[in-house]
Specification:
Layout: H1 2-8, E1 20-23, H2 32-38, E2 44-49, H3 54-70, E3 74-82, H4 86-93, H5 99-105, H6 112-125, E4 130-134, H7 137-146, H8 156-161, H9 171-185, H10 190-220, E5 225-231, H11 241-248, E6 254-261, E7 280-284, H12 294-304
Parallel strand pairs: 2-5, 2-6, 3-4, 3-5, 6-7
Antiparallel strand pairs: 1-7
Helix pairs in contact: 2-3, 3-6, 4-5, 7-10, 10-11
């Protein structure tokens, strides 16, 4: 078959900035420019990432520019900003604040300057809208902690920001989520099962919010192409945000670009087992292991997720 011979001509990325971009359908290698040509008519282009991977962020910037050359009516949509910080995003784009003010006002991620600055700056230079697409962090956190009923405690204005049917779901996504959780937690008792279910509801709130924000952007900017950046779990296999987009608006065309790790000891690209992850794939080097000492890893994870004393939700049990 064509895809086998084509994919075997790929060479493993040599640096953490490099990618090998292919069409998942037939394994043919693509340049960024050719990818932009193939995606020119898509309503929504979703570019998945492993957060903090240099190659993913470089490629996102390159794709953003390549798509703009063919469709200058572009809107950038980002998981990395929450909808309640949209005013801070707009203030920066309109020149009312400086970058450090923007980072502080928008609660930008710690890796903003290294990873997302090029995307925002391109949008700012070209006068393109940017959508803060994610659900408010405090609401997501409290749904994850106390359950979906937390939304009933919100004010009318807070609830109005969120989508109708905020926990819309697909069975395949739940199966994928459970498999990921099982891989890191093992068998769950009843209490753990409840916590996992609440965590999943929080995940759905993020995905439904991003889907609805993307569709709102399409309505607000007729004829524009939406470029959405997100963690790959939200989009690969056309699940998560992508599946909910299709449920909410079946006629919207969505293209998914997903990262695949090329293992250090593999000579050939891991294409066959990853083909279903997206319409287009990009192979990247694995990031270095964070920890080799399990005890240090456990302590670091505990510190990372330790709840600050003031971090409460109504109905929280301690």
């Amino acid at each position: 078959m064509t895809h086998s011979s084509e994919s075997h001509t790929l060479a493993r990325p040599q640096t953490l900035y490099e990618t090998r971009l292919i069409d998942a359908a037939d394994g043919t290698r693509l340049s960024v420019d050719l990818l932009g040509q193939r995606l020119a008519l898509a309503d929504v282009v979703v570019i998945g990432e492993y957060h903090g991977h240099q190659a993913a962020h470089l490629l996102q910037s390159q794709i953003q520019a390549a798509l703009y050359r063919r469709q200058p009516r572009q809107v950038l949509s980002m998981e990395q900003f929450n909808l309640d910080n949209q005013p801070a995003v707009n203030a920066y784009l309109s020149g009312k604040t400086g970058e450090t003010e923007f980072i502080e006002d928008s609660n930008a991620w710690d890796n903003y300057r290294a990873s997302y600055r090029p995307l925002i700056e391109f949008a700012r230079q070209q006068n393109l809208p940017v959508v803060a697409a994610n659900a408010p962090a405090a609401i997501v956190r409290c749904v994850g902690r106390t359950g979906p009923g937390y939304l009933d405690k919100l004010s009318a204005s807070e609830r109005a920001q969120l989508p109708d049917n905020p926990f819309m779901d697909t069975p395949a996504y739940r199966k994928k989520f459970d498999a990921a959780i099982a891989g890191s937690h093992g068998a769950a008792d009843e209490a753990m099962g409840k916590r996992i279910n609440n965590t999943y509801k929080a995940q759905l709130l993020r995905d439904n919010t991003m889907a609805s924000r993307i569709l709102a952007a399409l309505d607000a900017h007729p004829g524009a192409q939406i470029v959405h950046t997100t963690g790959t779990f939200h989009s690969e296999e056309h699940l998560g945000t992508v599946a909910l987009l299709k449920q909410r608006a079946p006629d919207v065309s969505v293209a998914v670009i997903s990262p695949v790790i090329w293992p250090a000891n593999a000579e050939k690209p891991p294409l066959h087992e990853n083909r279903n992850k997206g319409d287009f794939l990009y192979f990247i080097q694995p990031l270095p292991e964070e920890f080799l000492d399990e005890d240090r890893e456990h302590k670091a994870m505990s510190a990372r997720f330790r709840r600050p004393p003031e971090d409460n939700c109504p109905g929280d049990s301690r």
